[in-house]
Amino acid sequence: MSFKKFELDDRLIQGIDSMGFENPTPIQEQVIPAILDGKDMIATAQTGTGKTAAFLLPIVNKIITTKHDDHIKALIIVPTRELAIQIDQNLEGLAYFTHISSLPVYGGGAGDLFLREKKALIHGADIVTCTPGRMQAHLKMGYVSFKDLKYLVLDEADRMLDMGFYDDIMNIISHLPEKRQNLLFSATMPDKFRSLAKKVANDPLEVNIAISKPPDKILQVGFVIYDNQKVSLLKHVLNAKHLKSVIVFCSKKVMAKELNRELKKAGFSSYDIHSDLDQETRNKVITSFKNKQHMVLVATDIVSRGIDVDDIDLIINYDVPSDGEDYVHRVGRTARAESKGAAFTFINKEDQQKFSNIEKLLGKPVSKAKLPEFLGEGPAYDPKPEWGKKHKKKFHSGTKKHKKHFRKK
Ligand code: AMP
After folding, report:
1. Fewer CB within a 10 Å sphere, N or C end of the chain?
2. Which residues line ligand 1 (CB under 6 A)?
């Protein structure tokens, strides 16, 4: 399912393409239409699920398709400087082909940063992402105007409340026009968040987009590996005597077909399943897998959610899935009911950042196993933001961005 169905402005579709996003994540599917519809929202959402783009895309779309002036239209309040920078970078990527101006406002940094922020706030920016304390400091000076503000986002609201920002947040909100769209995101739903939401949001839609984590009884292991070592490792793992039922997941159907051929050639009893097969054939493949008539099922994500096969010994992620939810669904195919299970993930260099995002979502690192000696060394595990690499030349960061902001004005 592509982003096209949201009928977003072409300039945003270009931005989405340049970020390398092919399909919306489940959260984006749920949230984008509701925000475009103008609804207030409280959402349980965790980092790693694509929630940032889920609120940025509809907000930017609404701003660029309405009359343009220099006033602040959207305010995003976040707990930390790092999150403010991250959101602002996401915004620069997604909105690169639009005329939107954005400004991160956060504590720390040298004194002249405060002055630059002040200047930019006086000029106005379409979207301001701020930490509560820093915005309070600017508000006290009296030059910030929110008179045309239409959208308020609180991100990681539970964390902000834990950090004691309740009064700051409420004070900032007291400066905003009453008529606005409120979008509140929180990883958990403690009572204090609910009571804040009651005061801030107007008849909000409640969305639960948090994902459940895989049960502890599943042994999760990562293999950091070069692409040309993957097939050999797969065959090596599948040769373990005790295995009766294994699903090998890969993201692309061509890869599923090719791997299945390789495994068959090597003597494994294996079938593939993907969207090129008609429903009847898929059902047959799944039934024979359920009945343990073949040991390996090489699958794309079409089976990661639906199938309920007991006693799967091992899940192998031949590549790292694009989002955390797919990972959890894939891994959740093993250790159903009372049985134990294991999930191995092959992590090549390009997938390291994706995997590190998944680890963040799981709340802990997945242990990495040494490759068997005959394969030689794999790469080091050193995840780097994909975004930074891809857009290094195109975009500015930190203080340079403020200069860009002024150039735009
Ligand atoms: P977030 O949950 O917003 O922190 O996003 C987690 C990661 O997923 C970030 O690196 C995003 O750039 C990436 N991401 C967000 N939406 C998509 C998508 N539709 N397809 C692929 N990656 C995405």
Report:
1. N
2. 21, 24-25, 28, 47-53, 322, 357, 387
